[in-house]
User: Fold this.
Amino acid sequence: MTFNYFNIIKNDVITITGAGGKTSLLYFLAEKLSKFGKVLITTTTKIYFPSEEKYETLIIGNKIFSGKNKNITIAGSKVENKKLHSLSYEEIKSIKKNYDFILIEGDGAKNKLLKEWNNYEPCIPDFSTKIIGVINMDILDLNISEKNIHRFELLKEKFPDDINKKITSDFLQKYILSADYFKNSSINSKKYLFFNGIDEEKYLNKFHTTLKTVYKLYENAFSPRVFMGSLKEKDIYPLKKLDAVIMASGFSKRMGKNKLSLSYNGIPLLESTLQKILHIPFNKVIICGREKWIEELAYKYNFNYYYNSFADFGQSESIKLGIENSTGEGIAFFPGDQPLLSENTILNLYYEFQKTNLITVPVVEEKRFSPVFFPEDKKEELLKLEGDIGGKSVIKKTPIINLVKFSSEKEFKDIDTIEDYMYIINNKK
Assistant:
């Protein structure tokens, strides 16, 4: 059995570290895993004393208590100040054979959203098979101060120039690269970083910052697998590296010239699209074109350009060229002639794709538009396309897709005629 979250399998020993949702993640995973086998929850530090709704059996030293939640056992050595104290590593090791899954809270953060570690933290048994570090995106834009950070004095020593500034993506990159989420763990244990708190009113900003942070981490050879989501909304999903393909190989026969070269706010229409893509983190940006000025534009923005030798054969050739050069776990196809499309709309579609890993399509009153996001498992089907039909045939054959509703068609307007172009010019944002 492989579990949906963090690739958990039976006999895994999972230690959770960091701040901003460790205990919530502990109980979330226990609840899900209890459907597949017996779960032991314990700690190598301290956790708040659980209510009887959290467990079937509570073991405190030599005493055993009954609760209301099937297949979940919570164990500790004693209770002081409403906190359950740790078992020793040897005690956990001696009883783990009685359970299918072991969940351990291996860190403390005093209810703060970020922490620095002292010499003996985190407390990770060497037999842990998986380590999950937790970071909460509610920390975004808060001050780097004692109010928000556990063991602030230690963090102050590490980042003296950042103290009392706002927490940004740049700071999070530095912090995570220097963080001790996985210190003292076995080299053989699998490591994960979970970005919690992507929810509520600022969810798109948190999502955007998470993407920026993670892609910068990848540039620095960060190896732990990243998950993201919201424990408040009980939603966790792996971050999938996403490529963007801008299809710029068309002939615009109805226009009489390449529509992508038409002026919009003093720049070509295509460049307007590229400027928006530039501000949104992608694993790789691929431009499929056939003209020198498009190639030069791609290099201006440091995007990847591929010459479409078979553009005469239709739109499917741009799709195939994009896929053949894609290295991501998903791929989004953008027309080059949607200058009214906003960054927020792109981010919203990106977010919905990450959550579901389904073909993701914007809709307005049941009418479908572009851009369209495809998961990795659709690449083979897309490579079989022929002619000028695009990805619609793949979408039609897929029983479940993610339709994201929008209230207006305006942003999705593309250009096929002079009348379309004049509409775009007259409706600039």
In short: The mean pLDDT is 95. Residues 56 and 67 are 4 Å apart (CA to CA). The first strand starts at residue 13 and ends at 18. The chain has two domains: 13-238, 242-426.
